[in-house]
Amino acid sequence: xxxxxxxxxxxxxxxxxxxxxxxxxxxxxxxxxxxxxxxxxxxxxxxxxxxxxxxxxxxxxxxxxxxxxxxxxxxxxxxxxxxxxxxxxxxxxxxxxxxxxxxxxxxxxxxxxxxxxxxxxxxxxxx
Length: 127
Hints:
Oligomer: single chain
Order of helices and strands: EEHHHHH
Shape: elongated
Strand order of the largest sheet: 1-2
Distance between the termini: 57 Å
Number of strands: 2
């Protein structure tokens, strides 16, 4: 079987699943069902995810398996993450310089700043 289309061939709007059928017992269920986030991915992006999982998320193993460079694999990973509706690196904590981190902790211990201010500094929100 071929995968179900996810876009209308006429207007390119997203299609919804309206009917499910079991070929074993001939049961049919009708309604409006969502396809899920993976339905937004191209076949190439799905294959990339399968390879990524098979390689346990290790990009160096992917380099060997699919013969692409680290930057190319990383770019494809970011494209796939965006296609799933996320922004790569958005949840990553910013890198704080060691002297800024030490200073914030020292200021907190000395009572110069509050715990909330220290947390904002350590999250990179204020310096």
